[in-house]
Amino acid sequence: xxxYAGKTGEVKIAPHGGTLAAIVGVKSxxxxxxxxxxxxxxxxxxxxxxxxxxxTEWNGTVECFVDSSELQILxxxxxxxxxDVAFAVQxxxxxxxxxxxxxGIKPSVSVEGAVTLSLTIQGSGGLEIS
Length: 130
Prior knowledge:
Blueprint: E1 10-15, E2 21-22, E3 26-39, E4 51-65, H1 71-76, E5 82-88, E6 95-108, E7 116-123, E8 128-129
Antiparallel strand pairs: 1-2, 1-5, 3-4, 4-7, 5-6, 6-7, 6-8
C-alpha cells in the first residue's frame, strides 16, 4: 500500500474555458463532495429505512500564500466568476477537477505572519476524479 504526502499537491485554476494555471504557494486545499439521500422508506421496507441516490454537489477551498507572480491570476479570478479548477494530490497524480463559481475570496494579513489568501469555489456540475 502506498500513501501520499501532501507536500507535492497543487491547484490549477482559470476563468471558465481558459488555460489552467498553477496557483503558486498553495498551503492547503480541501474538497467537500456530497450526495443527497432520498428517503424511499415504505411500509413494506421491513422496519429499515431505504434510500436512493439524489442530487450531488461539491465545493472546494484553497489556502495559499500571496505571491507577486499571482497578481495576474487575481485580476481574472473574482467572486462570482465561473472557473475551471483542478486539485491534485500530487503533481501529475490523483486529480479532482470540475467547473465552479468563486464564492469567496478572503485575504488574511497579520503583522506577525505571511499574507495568505483563501478561495472558496462552489462546484457547478460533476466532480471528475482521474
